[in-house]
Amino acid sequence: MIFQDHATIKEKLEILSDAAKYDVACTSSGVSRKGNKGEIGNTAASGICHAFGADGRCISLLKVLFTNECIYNCKYCINRSTNDIPRATFTPEEVCTLTIEFYRRNYIEGLFLSSGIVESPDYTMELVCRTLHDLRTLHRFNGYIHCKAIPGASRELIEEAGWYADRMSINLELPTARGLQELAPNKNRTTILTPMRQIQNGMAESRAMLGMKGGNQSAYWYTQKRTGRALPGEQATLHTTQNLFGQKKAPEKLADNSLKEAQTAPDNLISSSNTGLTQWKHRDISRGFVPAGQSTQMIIGATGESDYEIMAVTEALYQRFDLKRVFFSAFININQDSSLPAVNGQPLLRREHRLYQADFLLRYYGFRADELLTQQRPFFNTYLDPKCDWALSHLEQFPVEINTADFNTLLRVPGIGTKSAQRIVAARRTGKLDYHALKAIGVVMKRAIYFITCNGQMMYHFLKIDEDYITRNLLENDVDVMKGFDEKVTYKQLTLFDDSDYEDTN
């Protein structure tokens, strides 16, 4: 059903903002509320979403698709070609008008623009590039722009978009090449990873030439540097920056559809030149090339990958492409396709949440994927956050003495985050810390007390370094534990003959 011929710009906005809600690279409010007499303001669900800046500030974005028409037939996508849904396509002028008018009314501070594929990847990407060009040059819009690159588009168009956008992203779609072949046969890893590599090389060149105006390094990169680990892609990136306008280099390899491939070398060859930028002389370089970095998104639960495989692929993407973020989206069978897995009840949001927590452990805490999970234990315990789950599996490393442990050791203690670890290290310079000081610093004591000592003493004399004992206490106030999430509870049931002073901990 093609709806665009007689649609107003508002009707197009309703269709294309709703079609963009499944992209989780930023969070949509989805709230629609009319104004009331005696009150100020109203809200519209169409297209307004929120992202967060590096300073923690919440930024409102206009989040829309350029078009929800698509020549591909990905089984999981609401916009697939065989679905009978209302279709619409903006013109570049309409996207510019919406962005500028919303900005003038202080509704938004930037634009998040993705798209289906109409006619061909190059044709669609050319329309997106024209939109960004008009915003930046004709309308002099200097706000934030996040642009989704179209897999399969030419290198020239990918680079052109990178000079106008602040952030770019190419969705990996599914964790493995096997899953992509099953559910999105029109796409392949090469058309996804080639522009990802091009953007990475372009950011490295822009950094070398323009300083911070070219995708400052990711949190994962800084964490690996702090822990003294070298990234597999560092030498290749260095070679790229030293040869900004050099000749072709040999094809590179990338992690792909299995754990072994993700950690070593994949089967797919990613063709790439040793420069991501060829248009220096024809572009405004004041913003740099993709200065906010690049990200990607994976659908979780549509295919049979384990958490272990997903985290291994995520780690490989951070290592080899220096991504800012990997986003996870719990699978929803919106098409009711019989070839897709049935989802009983709610989407796998708890699994998605645990993957995000594990992602933070990779990026900020110095954990490796093979520390969090193994082939023998390939899924996260959904009842416990991944850090607590890891600590319970490595009780030989606890308790940790707060007054002597180094920064990286403190980060592995449940209840201690990056900021509280920094405060602990700073506070120890003026004297020894006790439990009252830790609470004031911001340590989450209800988790940390089982894993730390202060001046050689645990907080309570009856606390035990025992997996069953700690698990029972951590979960005692979790109202979701007994509801069941298709998993078996792995800790022992408390009995009348238990020798612990359990009630004293309440």
Overall radius of gyration: 25 Å
What's the helical proportion of residues?
25-40%
Number of helices: 18
Termini separation comes to 61 Å
Mean pLDDT: 83
Shape: globular
Structural class by secondary-structure content: alpha/beta
Q: How can the largest sheet be summarized?
A: 8 strands, mixed
Number of strands: 12
Relative strand content: 5-15%
Note the run of SSEs as H and E: HEEEHEHEHEHHHHEHEEHEHHHEHHHHEH
Number of domains: 3
Strand order of the largest sheet: 1-2-3-4-5-6-9-10
Unreliable stretches (pLDDT < 50, length at least 5) are 27-31, 236-272, 482-506
Provide structural commentary:
The protein is an alpha/beta fold. The chain folds into three domains: 1-33 and 43-148, no CATH class; 172-380, no CATH class; 395-505, no CATH class. Helices cover 36% and strands 10% of the residues. The protein contains 18 helices and twelve strands. The protein has helices at residues 9-19, 92-104, 121-138, 155-164, 177-183, 189-210, 219-226, 234-242, 259-263, 307-321, 349-364, 369-372, 386-393, 407-410, 418-427, 435-441, 445-448, 467-475, and strands at 27-28, 48-52, 58-65, 110-114, 144-148, 167-169, 252-253, 269-270, 294-300, 325-330, 400-401, 452-453. The strands form three sheets. The protein has an eight-stranded mixed beta sheet. Helix 10 (307-321) runs parallel beside helix 11 (349-364). The longest helix is centred in the middle third of the chain and has 22 residues, at 189-210. It is globular, with a radius of gyration of 25 Å. The chain starts with 8 loop residues before the first helix and ends in a 31-residue tail after the last helix. Residues 27-31, 236-272 and 482-506 have low confidence and may be disordered.
